[in-house]
Amino acid sequence: MKPRRLPRAKPHLPEEDVAVLLEEFGEILRSGRLTRGLHLDRFEREFAACAGVKYAVGLSSGTAPLEIALRFWQVEGREVIVPTNTFVASANAVLLAGGIPVLADISPACLSSSCAQIEARLTPRTRGVMVVHLAGIIPPEIAEVRQLCRERGLFLLEDAAHAHGASWRGRPAGSLGDAAGFSFFPTKVITCGEGGMLTTDDLQLADFARSYRCHGLDGQSGELVRLGNNYRLPELSAALGVKQLARLEEFVGERNCLAAHYLERLARMPGLGLFPPLADQVHSYYKFPVLLPSGCDRQQLAQCLQEEFGVETGSAYWPPCHHHPLYCDRFPPALFPMAEDLLPRILTLPLFVGLEEADIDWVCSVLQGVLARRGD
Ligand SMILES: Cc1ncc(COP(=O)(O)O)c(C=O)c1O
Fold first, then answer.
1. Domain 248-373 carries which CATH code?
2. Cβ atoms < 10 Å from Cβ of 17
3. Whose CA is nearest to atom 7 of ligand 1?
């Protein structure tokens, strides 16, 4: 079988959008208004409507909304619970805001923390909880986590970097906690190159974020009222964001169709754990994870798929946060029995808009062949 060169992820920028964008970019460049302009206003307005919230604030990365919300809730010296299975940015945001990340184990249902796993990490110093919609799956116990946070007076922050267009019981990701952060990094469901968005119904938090992204200047008086930073989203990026957002439903629909094809093909392969869409929710399928059989060496398998067949795969996430040198001293592996068992065996398969069913058939057959070689 000849290699096909399939990347793990790539942005989808339809030619017709590129043509319109090139004109818009020309207008933006000629206008001289390269930041804080009409494209950002429009992106924020339309994103808020799509996420089902009152306010959306455009920012320079997906880490920025997390850091800003955590600063607003004054986490300095307080603990924030974060699932260990996430990109390091989630836990780092807590440190950036002066807080103490407390990593929690994960459940096989959603590869993120269950309500009981979160509850097990609560202490009198806990200030709030960050949930991560890993791979685009909203944790099925989100209502219980919300209730727990309400009862204990804790904030609930969604890291929705993987979950544009996902929803739970008809409620979009971004509207399920007190605030949420999205990323527009190029691998994400929609992109604007680099960028992020904070969503919330809290006017004070939205005002704080607008001030924080502009060094801490007050939007009305122009006075410096807090120490902030430059976390602005440029106009060129916002214009791209508007075009991508208009495609969100189409992209998520396409990702779900491709995932359904994978699920159908892979169901015929014994020994693989799959993550079909959960009841009550729309999955964004930012990633397509499969759980490899026990004893299977993911890294070796990934190397073989890449080198022999040109199929790029990934992990979600290995190493998890508690293995990184910055965190490992405080969090021994024994605290994370599920993560230790599952995450070394999670392999993510190529999934992006533009992938074809024939590509999926190819990925599944080479995966089957490689697994058969080692007798699984
Ligand atoms: C779960 C998660 N949170 C936060 C981020 C941070 O986003 P950014 O790289 O845009 O700062 C990412 C980015 O990959 C992510 O995957």
1. 3.90.1150.10
2. 16
3. 62
Q: What is the pLDDT of residues 228-266, one digit of tens each?
A: 999 999 999 999 999 999 999 999 999 999 999 999 999
What residue ranges do the domains of the chain occupy?
15-104+111-246, 248-373
- 54 included as an active-site residue: no
Q: Which of 54, 188, 243, 287 is catalytic?
A: 188
Residue range 22-42, pLDDT digits in tens: 999 999 999 999 999 999 999
Ligand 1 close to Cβ of residue 90 (< 6 A): yes
Farthest CA pair distance, the chain: 69
The one-character DSSP state at 21 is H
Number of H helices, E strands in the chain: 13, 12
155-172 per-position pLDDT tens digit? 999 999 999 999 999 999
The DSSP 8-state label assigned to residue 226 in this structure reads S
Is the whole-model pTM more than 0.85? yes
Q: What DSSP character marks residue 362?
A: H
Architecture in CATH for domain 15-104+111-246: 3-Layer(aba) Sandwich (3.40)
Residue 344 per-residue DSSP state: G
Establish whether residue 183 lines the binding site of ligand 1, counting it when its CB lies within 6 angstroms of any ligand atom. yes
Atom of ligand 1 nearest to the CA of 86: 1
Per-residue model confidence (pLDDT) at position 19: 98
- 363 vs 270, more confident: 363
Pocket of ligand 1, candidates 8, 70, 80, 87: which has the most ligand atoms within 8 Å of its Cβ, to mutate? Answer: 87
Other beta carbons within 10 Å of 298: 17
Beta carbon of 185 within 6 Å of any ligand 1 atom: yes
